[in-house]
Amino acid sequence: MMKEREKVLQKLYMQYQMLQQHLENMQQQSKVIGTQLIDLMGTIQSLEDLKAVKEGTEILVPISSGVYAKARINDTSNLVVNVGADVTVSKSIDETKAVVERQAEELEKIQNQVLTELQRLSVKAAAIEKEMSSLAE
């Protein structure tokens, strides 16, 4: 009887450990998505700000993290947008903003799915924890 209980406890503990690892991975994924969403919201705000910039205005253009080049805006009505596979197209600020907003909406959907899965896994982990506790008594 005792051996059977130990086997069940051991099996539950392994399930619990796997769930915990999966939870940690999902939490990390949620953080990454959150960071991407913040970046997209910043891009949307920058696009709105760009509408007010007049041609000929000097701006700082990011080259890499913390490195900027001075540049002058020659065309405020068109942006060059990467659409994938190193292909770029010309789009207006509003068209570009719409693309970025769609990306943000898709990320929000994914974020909601991740949060739902996190909640489901947390409930399952709590149930396993409770079952292990009652078997250990």
Describe this structure as you would to a colleague:
It is a single chain. The chain contains two helices and four strands; from the N terminus they run H-E-E-E-E-H. The chain is α+β, with helices and mostly antiparallel strands and 137 residues long. Strand 3 (78-84) and strand 4 (87-92) form a beta hairpin. The chain is rod-shaped. The two termini are 14 Å apart.
Spell out the blueprint of helices and strands:
Layout lengths: L1 H49 L7 E7 L2 E6 L5 E7 L2 E6 H44 L1
Antiparallel strand pairs: 1-2, 3-4
Helix pairs in contact: 1-2
Short description, anyone?
This protein is α+β, with helices and mostly antiparallel strands and 137 residues long. The chain has one domain: Orthogonal Bundle (Helix Hairpins).
The amount of helix comes to 55-70%
CATH-level-2 architecture? Orthogonal Bundle
Q: What distance lies between the first and last C-alpha atoms, to the nearest angstrom?
A: 14 Å
Helix run count: 2
The helix-and-strand class reads alpha+beta
General form: rod-shaped
How many distinct beta strands? 4
> Roughly how many Å is the radius of gyration?
25 Å
Total of domains: 1
What's the arrangement of strands in the largest beta sheet?
1-2
Overall pLDDT confidence: 93
Question: Beta-sheet strand percentage?
Answer: 15-25%
Poorly predicted runs are: none
Largest sheet: 2 strands, antiparallel
Q: Spell the H/E element sequence.
A: HEEEEH
Q: Output the CATH class name.
A: Mainly Alpha
Here the CATH topology equals Helix Hairpins
